[in-house]
């Protein structure tokens, strides 16, 4: 670790160059960097790929910032070798990417697109040849549109559809892929896609949200079972978006509101996976879901013995009672003492203490064997100065969060790995290309990649 690259004053006292180093995390710690098919691949209709919900959503007017779409994105479909080599050059040991369901099964189920399988064989082989462990997410939000036309996540049939997709992928790649994540952030894609409509497919309201919750929770466990069946030695996890929730004040009403938000944001998908059922006590609206969509035998099928939990964390959430908010009675607030400097370009609060607290909170569950931080990172407005991007805020962000991960690990929590989000600037869903999360800058006109200071920092930190 280079002392001159330590930037975060606030935490300098906590960083001692001999204790905050790669080796302090242990020799078997997984160091990865992640990306997702829709955000990076482009080639949205090439070589037999079917349309996904995000293709359709981003082709509509007014859905995406500046009317952008991911038809081309970072051209990972054509440039995967360059990007994988870049990941390798930053000294990561693991490369996380997702498989696009509609590239494999353009009609959702049925006929397999051989060109799709071939593409991922190339990606995987390239990782393996370069000594990077491929870490595959089965579902990172890009559902085939044909299945959405049949109801998508609201249709119980999705359990069969998803199972078929998992069968195809796990049989095909069983000899090459050991590490799997079933779903990426179900609370994210179900909440934003089927309740608020902010993400694809843009559906809203409880009648979409409730069935989508249950079916996604069923698929989460079902995917685990399919992987285990086809690849007995696989290391299987699934990821959750997690935020440490603070009540706005110590008033009972705010504390209660914070508990509800915690149940919704952190516990809704995790607890059923652990065999604990849904957090109905804090979220009574789930009673309706259970009555209407849970059929006999489902409660047992919701659980799966995952080898690890993928914890994804970006920010803390402060919650206040809000009587006008339907179902939850709680709302997020930005406390007055926090100023603009402490926000990333997504408006997310920089809160490194939160990753420590949420790791600790989640690790309290008996059923969790290991935790891997499968996403953490930040968007900032990057600019070139003499050909360089000196993104010191991002370096400081990573340093401060990593110190807290180390603190959690040193306190005895089984944190097994950490993955930065993300390798290159990419398509940030509804926000389009504006938020820059990459360790590597992408010029979206020329597709030229430029290593940022944060990328260089990882290279040094991991290269020790
Ligand atoms: C996560 C998503 C990931 C990316 C980051 C910034 O919620 O899983 O695809 O958009 O946020």
Report a brief summary of the structure.
A hairpin with an 8-residue loop joins β8 and β9 (330-332). The chain is 37% helix and 14% strand. It is built from 16 helices and 15 strands.
What secondary-structure arrangement, pairings included, does this model have?
Layout: E1 30-34, H1 37-40, H2 53-59, H3 76-89, E2 94-98, H4 101-104, H5 114-129, E3 133-139, H6 145-148, H7 158-173, E4 179-183, H8 186-194, H9 206-230, E5 235-241, E6 245-247, H10 252-267, H11 270-273, H12 286-293, H13 298-301, E7 308-312, E8 317-321, E9 330-332, H14 352-363, E10 371-375, E11 384-385, E12 388-389, H15 392-410, E13 415-421, E14 440-442, E15 449-451, H16 453-463
Parallel strand pairs: 1-2, 1-13, 2-3, 3-4, 4-5, 5-7, 6-8, 7-10, 10-13
Antiparallel strand pairs: 8-9, 11-12, 14-15
Bound molecules: beta-D-fucopyranose (FCB).
Q: Which descriptors would you attach to this protein?
A:
37% helix; 464 residues; disordered N terminus; single chain; binds beta-D-fucopyranose; alpha/beta; 8-stranded parallel beta barrel; 3-stranded mixed β-sheet; 14% strand; globular
Description:
It is a single chain. The protein is of the alpha/beta class and about 475 residues long. Helices cover about 35% and strands about 15% of the residues. It is built from 16 helices and 15 strands. It has helices at about 35-40, 55-60, 75-90, 100-105, 115-130, 145-150, 160-175, 185-195, 205-230, 250-265, 270-275, 285-295, 300, 350-365, 390-410, 455-464, and strands at about 30-35, 95-100, 135-140, 180-185, 235-240, 245, 310, 315-320, 330, 370-375, 385, 390, 415-420, 440, 450. The strands form 4 sheets. It has an 8-stranded parallel barrel with strand order 1-2-3-4-5-7-10-13, surrounded by 4 helices. It has a 3-stranded mixed β-sheet with strand order 6-8-9, with helices on one face. A two-stranded antiparallel ribbon has the order 11-12. A hairpin with a 6-residue loop joins strand 14 and strand 15 (about 450). Helix 3 (about 75-90) runs parallel beside helix 5 (about 115-130) and helix 7 (about 160-175) packs parallel to helix 9. The chain is globular and about 55 Å long. The chain binds beta-D-fucopyranose. Beta-D-fucopyranose binds near residues 39 and 421.
